[in-house]
Amino acid sequence: MELTPTQCQQARLARDTRYDGLFFTAVKTTGIYCRSICPAPAPKEVNVEYFPTAVAAAQAGYRPCLRCRPDSAPGSPAWLGKNATLNRALRLIDEGALAEQSLTQLADRLGITERYLRRLFSDEVGLSPKAYSLYRQCLLAKQLLHDSTMPITEIALACGFHSIRRFNDCFKQQFSLTPSQVRKQEGGRRDSGQAIEILLSYRPPYDWQGLHQFYASRLIPGLEWLDAQSYGRTFHYGTCKGRFTATHLAEKSAFRASIHLSNLTYLPRVIQNIRRCLDLDADTRLIESQLCQAMGTTSLIKAGLRLPGIWSPFEAGIRAILGQQVSVKAARNLVSQLVALNPENDEAFSYFPAPEQLCRLDLTQLGMPQRRRETLGHFAEYACGKRLDESEQLLALPGIGPWTVNYLRMRGLSDPDIYLSSDLGIKKAIAKLPQPIDDQLAAPWRSYLTLYLWSTLT
């Protein structure tokens, strides 16, 4: 939903946190752009202009405010729904794809030509893919300069810059400031075993209690941990291992993420995946209005609904297979047994097996039908070399049906428009409603409808 200038004006004057990250205010007299919640005195309307993203404001010649820090705003869904290829390209670039590979390689990964990719960005984003990537890299670097004690050289490496000189040049070009000018505390040093701390904002409201309960009922000890205000887990990307703990700070409308990584170059994709798993960029105001239409009501029992993600599509697919036709508790026990088989576990932490590892495990130790063990094997073999976002190819695998694929997409890919109509829990929840629902009215947010109906059973 595009905001009008009048809506933007009302939101910035009220400093309405629900609009944080949905637009940015640029002040012509100072050359600075701000978040809608900026604490600075509000400028006159004649002196401002509005932009849907921080990147757009920067390309217009404005630099970020040092008080409200646009680098830490929740992600804007400005391009969502316009083009599936563009959305995937933006996600990959946000994870650092162009810092690791060429534009031609990224285009090949997307299944399009480099020329088409350039035109797509020019038409929809207003700048080249590389310019977008550099700005996103610098925004992340700026946030790390503010929030962490990482040395500037490590920040440059983590954000995809291969030399400190290149980093300094790009940073100054983007923000008219040097990294050392942004740094809060000069000379901060970080031990190799010390965590990277970063603040991850969201637009309130946020149903932390609901997310907490969802994760708690499916928690795998050793792989995940949970307390009253935080959730954490281990993860791996190839040879890179790590873990994070995200602590909810309701008064700041944010989570403080504490991240341990064996390879700093994976930091951008780790941060993006934490944001996805905690669903920090959702516009709940828009989503819940759609759900109310579908359910024929004026309000929901719970506000701030979020979609709890699983770290990877592969893990989501395995959890879905183990959860076929069994209770949540039984599925959790099976996942725990599977994780315990991973030889890479140590005394302190457990890790979900990668596809190649699972293919080598002795699955006869799992208390389940032999056919389902075979399904696990087929799925793991497929995942060793294939993408897991192609539904038709997944459905062709033995033992994989629509419910399994949809669960994978909903929690492993955070697809917002999955309605699990065949799910037993959904059927029970619908039977308790005073009137029928029209799930089509909830599109493209039917995953949230699925989650909401599940929540009514607890």
UniProtKB/TrEMBL annotation:
Domain of life: Bacteria
UniProt cofactor(s): Zn(2+)
Entry EC number(s): 3.2.2.21
Class in the EC hierarchy, top level: hydrolase
Keyword annotations of the record: Activator, DNA damage, DNA repair, Methyltransferase, Transcription, Transcription regulation, Transferase
InterPro entries per UniProt: Ada-like_dom_sf, Ada_DNA_repair_Zn-bd, AlkA_N, AlkA_N_sf, Alkylbase_DNA_Glycosylase/TA, DNA_glycosylase, HhH-GPD_domain, Homeodomain-like_sf
Keyword DNA repair: yes
Catalytic reaction annotation: Hydrolysis of alkylated DNA, releasing 3-methyladenine, 3-methylguanine, 7-methylguanine and 7-methyladenine
Residues annotated as domain HTH araC/xylS-type: 87-185
Name of protein: DNA-3-methyladenine glycosylase II
Organism: Photobacterium atrarenae
